[in-house]
Specification:
The complex is a heterodimer of chains A (363) and B (337). Chain A has 363 residues and is mainly alpha-helical. Chain A has 16 helices and no strands. Chain A has one domain: Amino acid/polyamine transporter I (Up-down Bundle), CATH 1.20.1740.10. Chain B has 337 residues and is α/β, with parallel strands linked by helices. In chain B, a hairpin with a 2-residue loop joins strand 9 and strand 10. The chains are: A mainly alpha (363), B alpha/beta (337). Chains A and B meet through helix 12 of A and helix 6 and helix 9 of B.
């Protein structure tokens, strides 16, 4: 139920959505979109942003009808108890999977750039223990932390201005639209992992202290900011690297900073990634929270957070090699289409039909 | 700590890497003793060199502070890409390291003993000064990487020589085709002009021009304007590139007759004429070297994408027609009229 202790304000919602979307995905995003959309990768991220906006609108239309229910309550209400529970299981698996993926990618990046010799399980344990610790304290505390952590994102944004010192070549992105509509759309699809996280609205909607219209405005604004942020980074990567070079680099955003050198300061990439650990952790925290929230009521929440944390821990210490991780990524992306885009849309259509029939019954 | 590294090709087609490493020892009381060490490794290929070097040095090798890479011309003819790879793949490597070509053997330069300061810093300081005055382009492992992988552009790299007194001099720029040295290089003055044609004026550029018998002028270019116009003939598909640059000069010295007053208009004309002639020679060298330093391919791919897909740029580049004109404009004559 909505109590004073777990409701959040408008500002907190804004940063909650931003923090949940921005995370591990950004580092590899330019590479992901460039592999198909070439120089038009920045259009791909814009299109992805529009797609998210449409989805958010559908969420809002759906949630507006059930102002006191979360995603998992709505499935039960519309689809009946058994089918609803079956759907919820899917939703739970999805959150666990994407949480594990985010955590696994996070660990891989840390081992690659910062701690090459530390065993994976130690890293995983540290990340997950700290995540569980924050998640147990429920929504309001998490939101406060997210607002605080957003200062770092702003800091990193300012840090990115230094990359203007690098030689830029705008010919790489010209002529605009040269890779064709199909490739641009595929590029948007590949950027999906980076923009996921907005689905948290489905589960936190009832806890926001705002009018319904106000919520729509806030989440749209958050999505707009994230889209601009991503497009900006993709754009500077596209004009700074040659297309062949960009395909060779796993984390282009870090290489941007690696190439910088000043009299006072060097190796900005290591500073960037050390700070970026926080936005990456917030993604893990978010999925831990969402997975626990999706299956529990007030009493069982804390227990479920621990269970989810243990599950994620065990999935992340499976020794994935790079190709297996890519396959894992692919399946999670497909699952996300079902849970994040498909199911809410079906629910919305059904709820629309139900309300129509209810109204006709009343007449 | 590796301070500088050089690659050469020896007679048996082996690669000879010479490494200048710094050994810093703490003497206590905040004082450090810096010792310079020279390590030479020979191998048929570049991979595994790091392991060989480790075997020769006490402790683990740290390439995070290697400030320059020197590559011998013989090796550069075979392609420099494999040697750059060493500097962008490893996690610790310093990607902003400068890349320099050595006219003769690179190991000769890196083994020079300058006395106090490590040789890499001596070379680096010289390079930085030359970059500021637009004598050579600033190319690091990172920028070289992006230009070599770019099909629509070729790189030019600075080269250094050793004179009879064992001093290191910056010779000018080497023209590259892809990652291979084309065999053609431009001396200092022309190198500067090429950089101006590329619109890469750094802080300022210094140049000297001989105007004829006993008349010479040297000047500083602080601001400039470049117009680059690419035209493709619809029928013949002939590519014409017109480059106009306007240079704003400040005269630093002028030797003429006794008591001669500066005639700005005449000087403007003379300097423009000579520089235009020089830039024609430069574009000819570029075509001969098959070095697309001006990035014509990039412009072509963005403005004429259909044509770009059809042609083989590596072969087609030779048929590009350049029309260059340099316009000099004397803004200031210094404190003397």
């Amino acid at each position: 139920m909505i109590t004073n202790s777990n409701s959040i304000s408008k500002l907190q919602l804004y940063f909650f959505i931003i923090q949940s979307q921005i995370g591990i995905g950004l580092l590899a995003l330019p590479n992901a979109v460039q592999s198909t959309a070439k120089g038009d990768g920045w259009i791909s991220t814009l299109i992805a942003g529009v797609a998210v906006q449409i989805t958010l609108f559908i969420y809002w239309l759906l949630l507006r009808r059930y102002p006191y229910a979360t995603y998992t309550d709505i499935t039960k209400k519309i689809l009946g108890k058994y089918v609803g529970k079956f759907c919820n299981l899917f939703i739970y698996i999805y959150f666990i999977m994407i949480g594990s993926l985010a955590c696994a990618l996070f660990i891989r990046t840390v081992t690659l750039w910062l701690l090459p010799l530390t065993p994976v399980w130690i890293l995983s344990l540290i990340i997950i223990l700290s995540s569980i610790y924050l998640t147990i304290s429920d929504l309001r505390i998490i939101s406060r932390f997210f607002v605080l952590a957003s200062v770092l994102i702003i800091l990193l944004f300012l840090l990115s201005f230094f990359t203007f010192y690098l030689p830029k070549d705008f010919h790489y992105i010209l002529p605009i639209g040269h890779s064709g509509v199909k490739n641009i759309i595929i590029g948007s699809h590949r950027s999906l992992l980076s923009i996921l996280g907005f689905e948290s609205l489905l589960l936190i909607f009832p806890f926001v202290l705002d009018t319904k219209k106000g919520i729509l405005k806030t989440v749209s604004l958050a999505n707009f900011s994230v889209t601009l942020f991503y497009t900006y980074f993709t754009f500077i990567c596209l004009v700074s690297f040659s297309p062949t070079q960009l395909l060779q680099i796993r984390e282009p955003v870090l290489y941007l900073f690696k190439a910088l050198s000043f009299e006072m300061i060097d190796r900005l990439d290591l500073i960037f990634i050390s700070v970026w650990i926080v936005p990456m952790t917030t993604s893990v925290i978010l999925y831990l929270f969402l997975s626990a929230k999706s299956i529990s009521n007030e009493k069982t929440f804390k227990k479920n957070v621990c269970i989810s944390g243990i599950l994620i821990f065990f999935i992340t210490i499976i020794p994935f090699d790079e190709d297996q991780l890519a396959i894992f990524d692919k399946y999670v992306t497909y699952l996300s289409y079902v849970v994040v885009f498909g199911l809410p849309f079906i629910l919305f259509c059904l709820s629309f039909i139900i309300s129509k029939t209810e109204r006709s019954e009343q007449l | 700590m590796v301070n500088g590294i050089s690659f050469d090709l020896d007679q048996d087609d082996n690669i000879l890497a010479t490494i200048r490493a710094l050994n810093i020892e703490n003497k206590g009381g905040g004082q450090f003793e810096v010792k310079d060490e020279l390590v030479k490794v020979k191998r048929p290929s570049v991979s595994g060199m790091g392991i060989d070097i480790n075997n020769k040095l006490p402790g683990l090798i740290d390439v995070s502070k290697s400030h320059i890479i020197l590559i011998g011309r013989d090796l550069a003819r075979k392609g420099i890409y494999p040697y750059l790879e060493l500097f962008y793949r490893p996690r610790q490597a310093y990607i902003s390291t400068r890349i320099v070509i050595a006219e003769d053997k690179a190991s000769d330069i890196i083994s020079l003993n300058p006395g106090t300061s490590p040789i890499a810093f001596v070379v680096l300081k010289g390079l930085e000064a030359a970059e500021d005055t637009t004598k050579i382009p600033k190319e690091t492992a990172f920028t070289a990487w992006s230009q070599i992988t770019d099909t629509g552009r070729d790189i030019i790299l600075p080269f250094v020589t050793k004179d009879e007194n064992d001093k290191i001099t910056i010779g000018g720029v080497d023209l590259f085709n892809g990652d291979k040295f084309s065999g053609i290089s431009l001396p200092n003055g022309k190198g500067s002009l090429l950089l101006l044609l590329m619109d890469r004026l750094n802080k300022y550029a210094e140049m000297a021009v001989e105007l004829g018998s006993h008349r010479s002028i040297s000047f500083v270019v602080k601001t400039m304007k470049r117009d680059l116009d690419l035209k493709v003939d619809k029928k013949t598909k002939k590519i014409t590139c017109r480059i106009n640059i306007t240079l704003h000069l400040t005269i630093t010295s002028y030797t003429g007759k006794v008591g001669e007053k500066l005639n700005k208009d005449k000087l403007n004309k003379d300097v423009s004429k000579i520089l235009t002639k020089q830039s024609d020679e430069i574009t000819k060298s570029l075509l001969e070297a098959n070095c697309d330093a001006l990035g014509i391919g990039g412009i072509l791919s963005s403005s004429y994408p259909d044509l770009w897909k059809k042609i083989n740029w590596d072969k087609e580049y030779k048929n590009v027609k350049f029309k260059t004109s340099v316009k000099a404009k004397i803004d200031r004559t210094g404190p003397v009229f």
